[in-house]
Design brief:
- By secondary structure, the protein is of the alpha/beta class.
- About 45% of the residues lie in helices and about 15% in strands.
- The protein has 12 helices and 12 strands.
- The chain has helices at about 10-20, 20-30, 35-50, 55-65, 80-95, 110-120, 135-140, 165-180, 195-210, 225-235, 250-260, 295-310; strands at about 70-75, 100-105, 125-130, 150, 160-165, 185-190, 220, 245, 270-275, 290, 320, 325.
- Helix 10 (about 225-235) crosses helix 11 (about 250-260).
- About 45% of the residues are buried.
């Protein structure tokens, strides 16, 4: 004989415990206004006592909505991605939504497959928290009929964009170093297939050009401290390098390590600015001057915009760019 599977409490069990109909329970759980307060409290107490969890599929059949947000993220442990995801999860929870997350690499096939999986799960809307670039046209087709918000300026896959203004980030860092008296600023950029990195690179070039300064050849890393270290070994052997903008704090830590090993003092010999303001930045030696980006706030705002789009699919295109801020610490100083 096969073992009997114990089921969880159903809506009819809640109705029996509260002494009401299943329809009344459904109205309470859907925040229907035409329910007496005493009845609402009695039903919610029964839900709590029984440990009832409403079935999202059944709810979607009744209301047309699953109360679920799909989120596409990169399969990485980068600070920016984890902080952004936290903001999305907090914002969704506050709005009474759950989050289904799918991770992917940056290949076109992997990205389109990931978006397809989320769409097939019946989510109410999508937040795409990864650069798409080459995959954008295919993703745009997949998301044409579902509310979508992106947090990366390269995708253009949906009607909404919520992100950090990367142009301002690079301008703040570059101008800070020029204002200190450095003749020019070298740049360790992020990967060339990331639009955030491309935006910072373009803005760095433009700021130097507008200031009438020489634009040095850029170097590229992959966001890791190791790639920063490798680039730092190159820059540290060039005596003309006195100021470096690094596209992430984690790469900046690698750059500083390499410079120190080569006998270049920070900031006496070389000033270094990072981007992100991760928790460790304030405790580096010396504390890292950096550009603070509020990824968690960006995630929350992305949820708000997505919910507005779910409520009003005809709201049209919009962009909201969150301004970063310069945090000055001990890794920058005037040149000797």
């Amino acid at each position: 004989m096969e073992p009997k599977i114990k089921r969880g409490p159903a809506m009819r069990d809640v109705a029996a415990a509260a002494g009401v109909s299943a329809q009344t329970v459904s109205r309470v759980l859907s925040d229907h206004p035409n329910v007496q307060e005493a009845t609402r409290r009695r039903v919610l107490a029964a839900v709590e006592d029984l440990g009832y969890r409403r079935n999202n599929t059944a709810r979607a059949l009744v209301t047309g909505r699953s109360k679920t947000i799909g989120v596409l993220t990169l399969a990485t442990n980068y600070y920016s991605r984890s902080s952004l995801t936290l903001g999305i999860e907090l914002g969704a929870r506050e709005a009474g939504y759950t989050v289904n997350s799918v991770t992917s690499d940056l290949s076109v096939q992997a990205l389109t497959d990931a978006v397809s999986r989320l769409v097939l799960q019946g989510v109410d809307g999508l937040i795409i928290a990864t650069p798409l670039r080459d995959a954008a046209p295919k993703v745009r087709q997949l998301t044409a009929r579902i509310p979508t918000v992106t947090t990366d300026g390269s995708s253009g896959s949906g009607d909404g964009l919520v992100g950090v203004d990367q142009d301002i980030a690079a301008v703040l860092a570059t101008r800070h170093l020029l204002d200190l008296g450095h003749r020019t600023v070298w740049h360790v950029a992020g990967p060339s297939d990331w639009s955030d990195a491309a935006s910072r690179l373009d803005s760095w070039r433009r700021t130097l050009t507008e200031a009438g300064r020489e634009v040095p050849p850029e170097l590229h890393g992959d966001w890791s401290p190791e790639s920063g270290y490798r680039n730092g070994l190159i820059l540290g052997r060039m005596p003309e390098v006195t100021a470096i903008l690094v596209a992430s704090d984690e790469m900046a830590f690698g750059v500083i390590r390499a410079l120190s090993e080569l006998g270049r003092r920070i900031p006496e010999d070389v000033s270094v600015v990072g981007i992100d303001d991760i928790d460790l930045a304030a405790y580096a030696n010396p504390p890292l001057t950096t550009i603070r980006q509020s990824f968690e706030e960006t995630g929350r705002r992305a949820v708000l915009h997505l919910l507005a789009q779910i409520a009003n699919p005809d709201m049209g295109d919009y962009r909201e760019l969150v301004a970063p801020t310069l945090i000055i610490r001990g890794s920058t100083a005037p040149p000797r």
